[in-house]
Amino acid sequence: MTGVSNHSTPANDSTNWVAHASATLAQRRTRKSSARTAIVASLATQDCCASAQEIHTRLRNNGSSIGIASVYRTLELLHHCGLVTRVDTGDGSARFEPANPDGEHHHHLICNACGNVEAFHDDALEAAIHAVSNRVVFRITAHEVALRGACQNCR
Amino acid sequence: MTGVSNHSTPANDSTNWVAHASATLAQRRTRKSSARTAIVASLATQDCCASAQEIHTRLRNNGSSIGIASVYRTLELLHHCGLVTRVDTGDGSARFEPANPDGEHHHHLICNACGNVEAFHDDALEAAIHAVSNRVVFRITAHEVALRGACQNCR
DNA sequence: TTGTTTGCAAACCTTTTGCACGTTA
DNA sequence: TAACGTGCAAAAGGTTTGCAAACAA
């Protein structure tokens, strides 16, 4: 993770997230299926966001015969359950990453030259967003910040 | 404009922006064409961001015979010249709005229920983003903030 | 068994591209 | 006139949907 501060380790987060996702899906009336299990496991391995197509390719490369439609349907389900965050990087496709149960999250640095995406976190920024959220007429439930420019290789 | 603070009036901004856009395009080797003139004029009437399809429809409704391809090509040109900001609201299409020459800009409140988009501005948020931008390894040239939730009608 | 979930293929929608024609300088 | 810009139509992605077969409870 690039940026101002780090939080807990990815490995620990991933393990917790898989368990949290399983529990949340179990609470719903959803059935246990190999496709969903595989997608949840695959999401947990990500450092940052990935597109549906990338997740699909990753699973097929690992021997799965999952269809792209199931990837989209499962991502929609996970997003609806608050288990996944949807990120728009402006490359014409949506990207997805696991959402931490405790609300801990990061934002994104996007390279306009090569499309590289990295994560960052900043407490002051979160505080400013929180303050704005309390002041506007909308009832805010989520937020996204994207910083665009040139990455270390492209600058 | 919804939110914490207002800045200069839309009418004044629009007029300035059309002049600024014309001047900027003239500096490039671009030719004056009716399609580009119409698109610039149409963009200037927007309160907030609009999709290419919406801009196209608006122009056709006003009697123009412009093609959708010209709308996309012109928006790309304007974006490349820094005259237009591209906004991703997550509805599957990019949205566009005039970019002020002085860097003055706003961010967006997006209603998850009805898709309504409104603008807001907050100085503390800008300051926080500026501070982060100076600290990360990327060289940041632009930023976007999206606050999601329920609008006044849907909350 | 019964309703859910799946993979495939087709459909859909946004955006891009090829091309012949019109327009600008 | 020579290059640039346009509208149209076709192509190219990404995403969604219809459906019969596979699967979980």
Overall description:
Chain A is of the alpha+beta class and 155 residues long. Chain A contains five helices and six strands. Chain A has helices at 10-27, 34-44, 52-61, 68-80, 123-133, and strands at residues 50-51, 84-88, 94-98, 107-111, 117-120, 139-150. In chain A, strands 1-3-2 form a three-stranded antiparallel sheet. In chain A, strands 5-4-6 form a three-stranded mixed sheet, with no helix packed on it. In chain A, α1 packs antiparallel against α2 (34-44) and α3 crosses α4 (68-80). Chain A binds chain B through residues 2-4, 86, 88, 90, 94, 109, 111-112, 118, 120, 122, 124-125, 127-129, 131-133, 135-152, 155, and chain B through 2-4, 86, 88, 90, 94, 109, 111-112, 118, 120, 122, 124-125, 127-129, 131-133, 135-152, 155. Chain A binds a DNA duplex (25 and 25 nucleotides) through residues 29-36, 51-53, 65-70, 72-73, 92-94.
What overall geometry of chain A do the principal axes of the alpha carbons give? globular
Largest interface: A-B, 40 and 40 residues
Number of helices of chain A: 5
Q: What structural class do the secondary elements of chain A suggest? A: alpha+beta
Task: Average the pLDDT over all residues of chain A and give the rounded result.
Answer: 92
* Series of secondary-structure elements of chain A, N-terminal to C-terminal: HHEHHEEEEHE
User: In angstroms, what separates the terminal alpha carbons of chain A?
Assistant: 18 Å
- Which sequence of strands runs across the widest sheet of chain A? 1-3-2
Biggest sheet features of chain A: 3 strands, antiparallel
